[in-house]
Amino acid sequence: MNAPPSPPGAQRTDGPSVRIGALVPLTRPGWVEAGRHLLAGLELAVREVNEAGGIAGRPLELVVRDTAADPQRAAAAVDELARLGVAALAGEYHSVVARAAAARADALGLPFLCSSAVLDALTEQPTEWVARLAPAQSHGWQIYADFLLGAGHSRIAVAAEPSVYWASGARILRDYLAPRGGTVIELDMRALAPTAVCDELVDNRATALLLLVGFPEPAVSIVKSVRRDRRLAGIMMGAPAGQPEFAEWSTLLGDDSVAIPFLRYLPERLSPLGVRVGTALRERLAEAPSFVAFEGYDTVAVLADMLRSHGSDRARIADSWPRVAVEGTRGQIRFSRTPGISVWQWARTPVQVVDRDPAEPDRFRILHTG
């Protein structure tokens, strides 16, 4: 099979490659579909960088490691990638896993641009080595809370499993909603079967239920139980973490997959670059690209720009976070220090609350923007 022709004006890439380590969940219990989209974005951007001449004539190479949603496995992968001489790290979807990777990257002095994880405390202490494209959880989830209040919901139940990420999300919602007249009722999914959730919702007079749980289970069983309980015909279900973004949600839930609002990190209109990349991602994935695929592309676009400007020296790369100004698929990317956030943060990530349209489940309705 012949390689595709290089675009006009492209330089030949030769010499030793410049390597970027990529952390991606590609096997269970990781969210494999999210990992596939993230990797597609990363790989597309690497291909385009190399078609345009690479990094000062040297090819850019992605060295991929599967984290499988395992923090220890991710930390070990960071150690291995550092030994292999990567100039920087990219990727990761799961917040708890990204936190473990960020801790190792910080300890080793390895620049890490986190693509998708949102946990505010990505590192225990402020670090110069880590930056993030996704919005901090407190920012996105407060926008989601505003949406809930605007939709008339003040008694909000959260079905939550134990994890740092879910506990952080519940705390953000509670702290934001309480001064505004909202009440958060926490349902511990270690103690409740999905059918018992319905009784709790009725007893607590909740008007909304948020799914702070794993996917596919118990999320799918909870949705089916609530949809089939006639007492709960008027309740709104939501999934701020974004589970309904992916096709598997619609496949497993069918008609029950719709009208469940979630957070998505896309602008109302993509730029010409975003449209072009979206078309290429659709061809690569054989389905509509999620916002996670765009995050992957933007991650490599930023790192490639830094590598061209500052070379592959790790310390010089880390020193240059505050000087980044890259046109990404979802807007211009710049990093700054945000109060309460320990890493360099893209502060202007677009945030939407969307759901799947009941009339056309493959179409998303924008309900609220932040």
Give a description of the structure.
Helix 1 crosses helix 9 and helix 1 packs parallel to helix 10. This protein has a seven-stranded mixed β-sheet, sandwiched between helices. The chain has a four-stranded parallel β-sheet with strand order 7-6-8-9, sandwiched between helices. The protein is α/β, with parallel strands linked by helices and 370 residues long. Helices cover 38% and strands 20% of the residues. A hairpin with a 2-residue loop joins strand 15 and strand 16. The protein is globular, with a radius of gyration of 21 Å.
SSE diagram, text form:
Blueprint (H helix, E strand, L loop, with lengths): L17 E7 L7 H20 L8 E7 L4 H13 L4 E4 L3 H14 L3 E3 L15 E3 L4 H14 L4 E6 L3 H14 L5 E6 L5 H10 L4 E5 L6 H10 L7 E3 L8 H7 L8 E3 L7 H14 L5 H20 L3 H6 L6 E3 L2 E3 L1 E2 L7 E3 L5 E6 L2 E10 L1
Parallel strand pairs: 1-2, 1-3, 3-4, 4-5, 5-14, 6-7, 6-8, 8-9
Antiparallel strand pairs: 10-15, 11-12, 13-14, 15-16
